[in-house]
């Protein structure tokens, strides 16, 4: 059995991301399901993990989405939190993808159907995302959500901004992570290595970032990059599973 907090949307008013009855489970190291993403879900996850740490069993809170959370929906959502014991199942590997542009969408399309990956998709605006079943986090500054990623998470950085990409690399190198992949050319990567070194990161740390991502033999089309990334991550996941069972 594994301890979790079940979050239920019990009441809604006005424009909201999900309807009453929607649920998600929050564990210390992962989540299952979604109550709509964005700042609401981010704050709900934080509260649920605080409850797990403090041993609290129940809680209820109404969130006005516009004034309190800065979301564009403008309605309000009441969330009920309740301690839950769940049967332990094989864990999916957390995969955090930053950027919902062409390459980000292509990678999500390839990776989302695979049960061994649990995707969290981050970008700066809700309208950058297509309709999707994966967990979405909207953050005006994606760097602020990095600290919420599990320590074993894999990260793929492919935003529309080189400055955001660099800030994400800096933040991730300052904490524990599974792996980091960065989209970019050889010129971009050479510049990033210099700037990351100037920020205090060692050559050994910086070398843990894979750049460019994908398989150059396949090409540079978003779908070709996604196929290369997916193949590499599936291979890595299988090798790590073998290591754990050896």
Automatic annotation (TrEMBL):
Span of domain XdhC Rossmann: 95-231
Domain XdhC- CoxI, first and last residues per copy: 5-60
Protein name: Molybdenum cofactor sulfurylase
The species this protein was found in: Yoonia litorea
Highest taxon above the source species: Bacteria
């Amino acid at each position: 059995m594994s301890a979790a907090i079940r979050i239920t949307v019990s009441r809604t008013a006005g424009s909201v991301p999900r309807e009453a009855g929607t649920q998600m489970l929050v564990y210390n190291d992962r989540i299952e399901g979604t109550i709509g993403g964005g700042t609401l879900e981010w704050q709900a996850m934080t509260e649920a993990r605080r409850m797990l740490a403090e041993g609290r069993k129940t809680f209820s809170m109404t969130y006005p989405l516009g004034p309190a959370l800065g979301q564009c929906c403008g309605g309000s959502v009441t969330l009920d939190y309740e301690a839950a014991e769940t049967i332990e199942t094989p864990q999916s590997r957390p995969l955090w993808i930053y950027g919902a542009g062409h390459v980000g969408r292509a990678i999500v399309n390839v990776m989302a159907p695979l049960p061994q990956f649990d995707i969290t998709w981050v970008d700066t605006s809700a309208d950058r995302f297509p309709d999707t079943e994966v967990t979405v986090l909207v953050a005006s500054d994606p760097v602020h959500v990095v600290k919420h990623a599990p320590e074993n998470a894999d990260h793929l950085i492919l935003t529309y901004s080189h400055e955001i990409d660099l800030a994400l690399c800096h933040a991730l190198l300052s904490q524990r992570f599974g792996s980091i992949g960065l989209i970019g050319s050889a010129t971009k990567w050479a510049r990033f290595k210099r700037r990351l070194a100037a920020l205090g990161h060692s050559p050994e740390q910086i070398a843990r970032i894979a750049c460019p991502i994908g398989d150059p033999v396949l090409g540079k089309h978003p779908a070709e990059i996604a196929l290369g990334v997916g193949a590499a991550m599936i291979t890595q996941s299988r090798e790590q599973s073998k290591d754990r069972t050896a």
